[in-house]
Design goal:
By secondary structure, this protein is of the alpha/beta class. 37% of the residues lie in helices and 23% in strands. Helix 1 runs parallel beside helix 3, helix 4 packs across helix 5 and helix 5 crosses helix 6. The protein binds glutamine.
Length: 531
C-alpha cells in the first residue's frame, strides 16, 4: 500500500501548515501506519544551509547531515522519528539533479523542459523517502502559498500524480486563513475561495480544507466554504488559535480529520491512542511550577531562529512538570559590567549556536555571570566555544583568548578551525555536519544525564576546541567530559565546582521530542528547578 496526502497552503504563508502536516502524520502513525513526512521548499537554494535565520528561522540538521528547513525538525518532534536528506526537497536540488543528468548525457538529443523533465524529477524525489523507509503513507507539505511562481512545477507534479495513480491514492488538504474584520466582527471566506480557485486552475481540487481562524468557526461559515470550494461539509475543519502547537493533533482528531482522510484514501480507520500525548499537552498548558530561562542570542527578534531550543525546553519541562518561561536576551544588548543586572533572577542560561563576531562579547558576559554566580549554564555549539573563551580569559588570565573565527591573530586561539575545514571554500553543506559519536567521562554530569557513556549527536560547525590548550584549561578546572570516539575532538566541557555547567559542541536540541525529551535538557531543567 502507498498513499499520498498533500498539504498545500493558501492566502498567506506562516499559517502552520507544518503543524497540520505533523499532526496528520502523527495521527496515522498512532494508528499503526508507517508514515513518511516530507517538506518541499520551492526556494532556488539547494538546501537551507545558506539561508538567513532572520528570514527563515533555524537551519535544522538531519542525522545524515542535511541542512534543512525548520519544518523537518517539527516533523521529527511530532513523529519521534529520525528523518533524512530525502525528506527535504528544494527547487535548487531538483534543478541541480536535472542539470547534472543533462550534462552527463542522460537526455541526449532531447529538449530538457519543466514538463516532463523537472516534474519527473520532482515525482522521483517525492517517491524516494517512501521507498527508503518502506512507508505506507506519505504526508507531503508544499511550502509557500498557492499562486507563487516557484511552486508551480511542484503543483503540476502533484496534479500528474493524482491523475496517474488510482483515485483513492491521493488526498489534498488545503490550509487557508479566514481573516476577521474587526469593525464588523465578521469572518471572511473570500480569500479562501480565491486560493481554492487558484488551485483548481492548476487542476487540483482540495479534498479537505483546514481553516485557520482566531476562534472556532460558526456552522454557517463552514457551510459557505464547503459550498463555494466544493468540499463536503465534514471535510471543512476549523483550526483556531491554540494554547500550544502540540494541541493541534488533539483538535484534528476531535474533528476527525484523520478519519475523513482515511475515507478518501479508502484505508481502515483504526483506533488512535492519544492518551499519553494528551496528558503531556495538559501538563504544558497547566504547569505546576515555572522557571525563568534566559536564551542569550543574536537572532532573538525572530524566535524561530532558535525553535528547536525553545521546543526542547518545553519538552523537558512537560516531563518534569514545570514550564520554562523563556526570556529572550539580545547578546548585543548585554553590556560590559551590567550583565549581572540584566540577567538577575534567571534560573538558568542557554547560549545557542551562532556564526560571526556580532554579539559574542555579550555572550561572554553571560557566561561569566553564570559561571561566577552558580547559575545553571547550558552552552550549545557557539555556546560551548564561548564557555571556553570566557574561561581562558577570566580564569587563566589570557585576556586576548578568542576563536580564530573572530580573531585570526589571537595569541590564545582556544577555538580554532577544524583540520578538515582548512581547505573548504564552498558554502552550503560543507561544515562538520550530521551525527558523530562521542565518548563520555564516567561520573560526569553528562554521563549521568544520558545514563550511558557512548552517545551520538548532530553537529554543524567549522571550529573546535583547540587541543593545544586542553591540558592547561583542564588543570584550571574546565573538565573535558566528552570527546569524539577517537579521543581527538572535544565535544563536551563541564566546570568543576559549579552546580550545572555543561557546554557541548553538538546540537542536542535537534533530537529532543515531545514524547522523549533530550536527557541534557531534562538535566538542565532539573538543575534550574533546584535554584
Ligand atoms: N561558528 C561556530 C563554528 O562554526 C559555531 C557554529 C554553531 O554554533 N553552529 O564552529
Amino acid at each position: 500500500m502507498r498513499k499520498y496526502i498533500f498539504v498545500t497552503g493558501g492566502v498567506l504563508s506562516g499559517l502552520g501548515k507544518g503543524v497540520i502536516s505533523s499532526s496528520i502524520g502523527l495521527l496515522f502513525k498512532l494508528q499503526g501506519y508507517k508514515v513518511s513526512l516530507q517538506k518541499i521548499d520551492p526556494y532556488v537554494n539547494v538546501d537551507a544551509g545558506t539561508m538567513n535565520p532572520y528570514e527563515h528561522g533555524e537551519v535544522f540538521v538531519t542525522r545524515d547531515g542535511k541542512e534543512t528547513d525548520l519544518d523537518i525538525g517539527r516533523y521529527e518532534r511530532f513523529l519521534d522519528e529520525e528523518l533524512t536528506a530525502s525528506n527535504y526537497i528544494t527547487t535548487g536540488q531538483v534543478y541541480w539533479n536535472v542539470i547534472r543528468k543533462e550534462r552527463s548525457g542522460k537526455y541526449l538529443g532531447q529538449t530538457v523542459q519543466i514538463i516532463p523533465h523537472i516534474t519527473d524529477e520532482i515525482k522521483r524525489l517525492i517517491e524516494r523517502p517512501l521507498e527508503e523507509s518502506d512507508a505506507e503513507i506519505g504526508v507531503i507539505e508544499i511550502g509557500g502559498t498557492v499562486g507563487d511562481i516557484e511552486s508551480l512545477p511542484f503543483l503540476e507534479a502533484l496534479r500528474q500524480m493524482k491523475d496517474e495513480l488510482p483515485r483513492e491514492d491521493t488526498f489534498f488538504v488545503h490550509v487557508t486563513l479566514l481573516p476577521r474584520l474587526t469593525t464588523s466582527d465578521e469572518l471572511k471566506t473570500k480569500p479562501t475561495q480565491h486560493s481554492v480557485k487558484e488551485l483548481r486552475g492548476i487542476g487540483i481540487q482540495p479534498n479537505a480544507i483546514v481553516a485557520r481562524c482566531d476562534k472556532p468557526l460558526p456552522e454557517s461559515v463552514k457551510q459557505k466554504i464547503g459550498l463555494f470550494c466544493d468540499v463536503p461539509l465534514q471535510n471543512v475543519i476549523e483550526d483556531p488559535d491554540l494554547p500550544s502547537i502540540y494541541h493541534a493533533p488533539l483538535l484534528m482528531s476531535e474533528h476527525q480529520l484523520h478519519h475523513r482522510i482515511a475515507e478518501g484514501l479508502n484505508i481502515a480507520k483504526r483506533e488512535t491512542p492519544l492518551q499519553e500525548w494528551a496528558s503531556l499537552v495538559h501538563r504544558v498548558e497547566h504547569p505546576e511550577r515555572r522557571v525563568r530561562i534566559g536564551i542569550v542570542g543574536k537572532y532573538v527578534e525572530l524566535r524561530d531562529s532558535y525553535i528547536s531550543i525553545s521546543e526542547a525546553l518545553l519538552h523537558a519541562g512537560a516531563h518534569e512538570n514545570v514550564h520554562a518561561d523563556i526570556e529572550w536576551i539580545s547578546s548585543e544588548d548585554l553590556s560590559k559590567g551590567c550583565a549581572a543586572e540584566q540577567l538577575h533572577g534567571l534560573h538558568g542560561i542557554v547560549i545557542p549556536g551562532g556564526f560571526g563576531h556580532r554579539g559574542v562579547e555579550g555572550k561572554l558576559e553571560a557566561v561569566e555571570y553564570a559561571r561566577t554566580n552558580g547559575v545553571p549554564y547550558f552552552g550549545l555549539c557557539l555556546g560551548m566555544q564561548c564557555a571556553v573563551i570566557e574561561f581562558a580569559r577570566n580564569v587563566l588570565g589570557w585576556k586576548a583568548a578568542n576563536t580564530t573565527e573572530n580573531d585570526l591573530d589571537t595569541p590564545y586561539p582556544v577555538i580554532a578551525l577544524l583540520e578538515e575545514q582548512t581547505h573548504v571554500t564552498q558554502k552550503g553543506g560543507t561544515m562538520r555536519l550530521g551525527v558523530y559519536e562521542s565518548a563520555l567521562a564516567a561520573g560526569s554530569i553528562s554521563a549521568n544525564c544520558y545514563g550511558q557513556e557512548t552517545i551520538a549527536e548532530r553537529h554543524r560547525h567549522r571550529y573546535e576546541f583547540n587541543p593545544a590548550f586542553r591540558d592547561q584549561l583542564e588543570a584550571a578546572g574546565l573538565r573535558v567530559t566528552g570527546t569524539s570516539a577517537n579521543g581527538q575532538l572535544v565535544e563536551i566541557v563541564e566546570l568543576d565546582g559549579h552546580p550545572w555547567f555543561v557546554a557541548v559542541q553538538f546540537h542536542p536540541e535537534f533530537t529532543s521530542r515531545f514524547l522523549s525529551p533530550h536527557p541534557l535538557f531534562r538535566g538542565f531543567i532539573r538543575s534550574c528547578l533546584d535554584q
